[in-house]
């Protein structure tokens, strides 16, 4: 059921503490951790603690939590000191966009010139 932890979801397992991750921030509704395959010097994922396959589903069902993900992404950028130089918040939605874990998540990317990163 949407919103409930999924036994086969890697990110749900991270939320539950069953899979290790380098956590950089945690709130009542989100967890932020370093990407294991970083595409920039700063590459942190921000996930909701509730399970929705995509950001679209999350925003439709729990818009306040979607807002929490965005707020925490901004806080990650500040904590990582990329807020002044520039950063990106990216949501990949669906396999054609590169989504490989079907639990809504934001990528916070920074620490280098991102103008050529599409």
Would you write up a description of this structure?
The structure is a single chain. The mean pLDDT is 95. The protein has a five-stranded antiparallel β-sheet with strand order 1-2-3-5-4, with helices on one face. With 118 residues, the chain is an alpha+beta fold. The radius of gyration is 13 Å and the shape is globular. Helix 2 (55-61) crosses helix 3 (63-79). The protein has helices spanning 10-15, 55-61, 63-79; strands at 23-26, 30-34, 42-48, 87-90, 106-110.
In a nutshell, what does this entry contain?
The chain is an alpha+beta fold. 25% of the residues lie in helices and 21% in strands.
Structural topology:
Elements: H1 10-15, E1 23-26, E2 30-34, E3 42-48, H2 55-61, H3 63-79, E4 87-90, E5 106-110
Antiparallel strand pairs: 1-2, 2-3, 3-5, 4-5
Please tally the helical runs, counting DSSP H or I stretches of 4 or more residues.
Answer: 3
The count of DSSP E runs of length 2 or more, i.e. the number of strands, is 5
Secondary-structure content class? alpha+beta
Rounded Rg? 13 Å
Mean pLDDT: 95
Major pleated sheet: 5 strands, antiparallel
Distance between the termini: 33 Å
Q: Give the fraction of residues assigned to helices.
A: 25-40%
Proportion of beta-strand residues: 15-25%
For the largest sheet, list the strands in their spatial order.
1-2-3-5-4
Q: Give me the strand/helix succession.
A: HEEEHHEE
Low-confidence parts? none
The outline comes out as globular
